[in-house]
Structures are given as C-alpha cells and as structure tokens.
Amino acid sequence: MSPPTLLVVDDDRFVRDLLKDAIRQSGLEVRMLEARDGREGLEVAEREHPALILLDLFMPHRSGLEVLESLRTTAPDTRVLIISSMDVEPVVEQALSAGAVGFVGKPFHPLEIAQAIRQALAH
Q1: What is the model's pLDDT at position 91?
Q2: Which of 13, 61, 88, 99 would give a disulfide with 39, using CB separation of 3.0 to 4.6 Å?
Q3: Residue 2, by phi and psi: left (phi above 0), alpha (psi -120 to 50) or beta?
Q4: 8: which strand partners?
Q5: Which residues does residue 33 pair with via DSSP β-bridges, in sequence order?
Q6: Do residues 81 and 41 touch, judged by C-beta distance below 8 A?
Q7: Alpha-carbon torsion 114, 33, 36, 12, what sign?
Q8: Mean pLDDT over residues 58-81, rounded?
Q9: Got the DSSP string for the chain?
Q10: What is the pLDDT of residues 12-51, one digit of tens each?
Q11: Does residue 90 carry a pLDDT above 90?
C-alpha cells in the first residue's frame, strides 16, 4: 500500500519548506506535493487527488476559503487542514464550517503539525 499523498498549499516558500521539514522529521510516511497559490493548489489537487491538503488562507489568485469551497464540490473526500496566521475565532469557524477538518495557527511547532496531520488522516 502506498503512503497517502499530502499537498502543501502556501504562497510563502519558507512556510512550505518548514511544513515539509516538520513532516519529514515527524516520521510520517507520506508523499508530499506543494503549490504556490490557491489556483495552483486546485490544479494539483485535481490532478493528484491528495488524501490531505495543508492550506493557507491568504494567498494570491484564490484564497484558502475559495479553494476549500471549490474542493467541497470537486473533491468532497479530500481532507483539508488550515494552516494560517489568521487564527481569530470567526475565521476559524468559517473554515471549519466550510469543511476543514482542523486549524493550526502560525507560528506552529513541528509536533503540533505532525499531530494534526495524524488526526486528519485518521478520520
């Protein structure tokens, strides 16, 4: 059985690299992909069908919430974990009610990311 595919969608290369490093260090066995913005994230998700997407909320071309809403119709089984510095309650509630399985605020700790990914993949 092949490892699940995980897609990191964030416009900040540094954050994408931090997430990928945290995942590698955690020992999680996943196939990792990345996208630079919301539009590219949707394209990669459509082509690769990841099990889980780590999604930033504020990006060019399409916001994380727009991506999430689109995924609910095009890939309803894809789990989405929001990773964002905008961790105010109304934004978190909006993301969760739009179908995200969880929310991790930036800055994050590598163990926090690994735990959130494990929980998201277990559902």
Answers
A1: 82
A2: 61
A3: beta
A4: 34, 54
A5: 7
A6: no
A7: positive
A8: 92
A9: -PPPEEEEE-S-HHHHHHHHHHHHHHT---EEEEESSHHHHHHHHHHH--SEEEE-SS-SSS-HHHHHHHHHHH-TT-EEEEEES---HHHHHHHHHTT-SEEEESS--HHHHHHHHHHHHH-
A10: 999 999 999 999 999 999 999 999 999 999 999 999 999 9
A11: no
- State both tokens at 48: 């690769």
Percent of the chain topping pLDDT 70:
98
State the burial class of residue 60 (Cβ atoms within 10 Å of its Cβ: 0-12, 13-18, 19+): exposed
**Tokens found for residue 95:** 């993301």
Here the tokens at position 27 are: 């020992």
Residue listed under structure tokens 């800055």 = 107
What are the tokens at 17? 């690299």
Which single residue is written with the structure tokens 């995924």?
71
What is the pLDDT, as a whole number, of residue 49?
Answer: 95
Per the CB < 8 A criterion, the answer to whether 84 and 106 are in contact is: yes
